[in-house]
Amino acid sequence: MFVRPMVFDASMIARPARPGDGVNNPLIVTQATDSNQTLTVAAMAGGVYQRAGMTAGRSDTTDTAANIIAAFPNMDIGDSMVLVISVSVAFTLTLLAGAGVTLAGATTVIANSMRLFLVTKTGAATVTITGL
């Protein structure tokens, strides 16, 4: 979940974390269902989404931008969080965009690998998820 934690600057003065401060506390959420799924905001909140149990290539559709923005009220426009999507089986996962979400960059995670995604609030009602 995106929460703006407090960090200390070089003068040991506490301030809210900003992009690039490198604060993270990931949690793996595993989806083992053998069908196309919705990548829910609850699964995204942990920072690591793992797909297992697939017996063929699958496509997961992101939650809507409205749901993502509502779940992370501390995100300002331009703020981003890192999402890792891992596939632990011998099939490819393709990411599809939910309403209000724009996908950029790579949108597939190949078999037995992982990909980093940057989830960015781009407007009051829009999110861009960029595969790196």
Task: Give a written overview of the molecule.
- There is one protein chain.
- The chain has a six-stranded mixed beta sheet with strand order 3-5-7-11-12-9. The protein has a four-stranded mixed beta sheet with strand order 4-6-8-10.
- The protein is globular.
- A hairpin with a 5-residue loop joins strand 1 and strand 2.
- The chain has 132 residues and is mainly β.
- It contains two helices and twelve strands, in the order E-E-E-E-H-E-E-H-E-E-E-E-E-E.
User: Count of helical segments?
Assistant: 2
How would you state the average pLDDT, rounded? 89
Number of strands: 12
CA-based shape:
globular
Structural class: mainly beta
Determine the oligomeric state from the structure: single chain
Helix content: under 10%
How many domains? The number is 1
Distance between the termini: 20 Å
Strand-residue fraction? Answer: 35-45%
**Largest sheet geometry:** 6 strands, mixed
What is the element string, with H for helices and E for strands? EEEEHEEHEEEEEE
Q: Taking Cα atoms only, what radius of gyration do you get, to the nearest Å?
A: 15 Å
> What is the spatial order of strands in the main beta sheet?
3-5-7-11-12-9
Low-confidence stretches: none
Give a quick summary of the entry.
With 132 residues, the protein is mainly beta.
Task: Give the SSE map.
Blueprint: E1 6-8, E2 14-16, E3 27-31, E4 38-39, H1 41-45, E5 47-51, E6 58-62, H2 65-71, E7 80-87, E8 93-96, E9 101-105, E10 108-109, E11 113-123, E12 126-131
Parallel strand pairs: 3-5, 4-6, 5-7, 6-8, 9-12
Antiparallel strand pairs: 1-2, 7-11, 8-10, 11-12
